[in-house]
Amino acid sequence: MRILIVGGGPAGLTFAACLLRHGIEPVVVEKAARGRTGGYSIGLHVNGWRVAERLGLVEAFRAKAMPLGPAHHLDRRGRKLFSYDYRVLAKAAEGRLLAIMRNDFQEILYAAVEGQCPIHYETTITALEDDGDGVTVTFSNGNRDRFDLVIGADGYRSAVRALAFGPHEDFLRPLGYRASAWRVPLAEPLGASFVGMMDIDHQGGLYAVGDGTAATLFCWRDERTDRLDPEARRAILQKEFGHWPEPVASALTSAIDWDQAFFDTVSQIEVPKWSRGRIALLGDSAWCLTFLAGQGTSTAMAGAYILASELARKSLPEALDSYEARMRPLVTRMQAVSRKIGGHYIPQSTFGMRLQAWILPIMLSPLLIRFTSSRLAAPPVELD
């Protein structure tokens, strides 16, 4: 079976690694240059952890993991609101939790498949022709090739989804935010795993990477879903956060490489069926939980593992249907969790901010963390 994977991110490379375990050699295309992977951190949770165990990658991820420790939230004047400790969350997950920079994560996955399957960077697709017996694909370099199956693992603004399923806007469920993330050098250590600030309709902060840099994450209420050019992005960030003190101030005045940074609307993707003929979707292309759920990468990894195992033992239509039947309940649950968190992620009033400052430390305390995890974390999905 010839399989084309469009997208060389976490979902696509995990899927490639899983296919190789079954003796299936895919072809991967990725629109970015190698190493252009975004300046933000991602979490590895139970479902992603279990896939990493099967791929023999847990120790490699651990070696590149960001330090886990206290997280401090301040108001926009720098006064402490509340704190909690990521180590409590890790203990509740029985140690199967870590944070890692996206570029480190992808390099580990790339090393796992390097030399075993073709990976073409700076390559996109421009046309898909599914005639029932196969899919003829036209690439951005003008070449054409034919595959038994095309998998869209090319993210939130998926080209595969747009070509085969319909316009991006048809599947969009905005949650009312924009977000931006990039990497910055630190003039001095943060003294915590995370130092953030919040205000009405705004939240932003820095995650210590452990190498003298920090990964930023800024989020603010904004109903618009249009894309913005780099100059407009910088202007919006200055308008929304430019009056905040350190450590936010230095992050906003640092140089931002928009080829590496993230800036987009916070929206879920809802596709009624993840496959159409010989074309199927995986990860953010199919469902996009958003960063609010904190489970996007791990859910994509689980989907990749399950899809590969189904393709290895069933006919194509049966495999695609079984993949969706096994993954849809988890995705539906985690999208609901994401929307629930999104409803109060950023306070809408001074009272709301004070309420968060009182409730969150209690919910994330050693006494209640297992209860909180049972309500918000993804349950283990059956992989085998």
How would you describe the overall organization of this protein?
This protein has a single domain, classed as 3-Layer(bba) Sandwich (FAD/NAD(P)-binding domain), CATH 3.50.50.60. It has twelve helices and 19 strands. A hairpin with a 4-residue loop joins strand 8 and strand 9. The longest helix has 27 residues. The protein is globular, with a radius of gyration of 21 Å. The model has no long low-confidence stretch (mean pLDDT 93).
How would you summarize this macromolecular structure in one to three sentences?
This protein has one domain (3-376): FAD/NAD(P)-binding domain. The protein is built from 12 helices and 19 strands. The protein has helices spanning 10-21, 46-55, 58-63, 86-92, 102-113, 159-164, 230-241, 248-253, 296-313, 316-342, 350-363, 369-376; strands at residues 3-6, 27-30, 41-44, 70-75, 80-85, 98-101, 119-121, 125-130, 135-139, 144-147, 149-152, 172-181, 183-185, 194-199, 202-208, 213-221, 262-269, 275-276, 279-281.
**CATH class call:** Alpha Beta
Q: What is the assigned CATH homologous superfamily?
A: FAD/NAD(P)-binding domain
Task: Write down how many β-strands occur, each being a DSSP E stretch of 2 or more residues.
Answer: 19
Strand fraction: 25-35%
The CATH topology, please? FAD/NAD(P)-binding domain
The level of helicity is 25-40%
How many helix segments?
12
The biggest beta sheet reads: 8 strands, mixed
Number of domains: 1
State the CATH architecture: 3-Layer(bba) Sandwich
Q: What Rg is obtained from the alpha carbons, in whole angstroms?
A: 21 Å
Organism: Shinella curvata
Protein name: FAD-dependent monooxygenase
InterPro entries: FAD-bd, FAD/NAD-bd_sf, FAD_aromatic-hydroxylase
Domain FAD-binding: 3-334
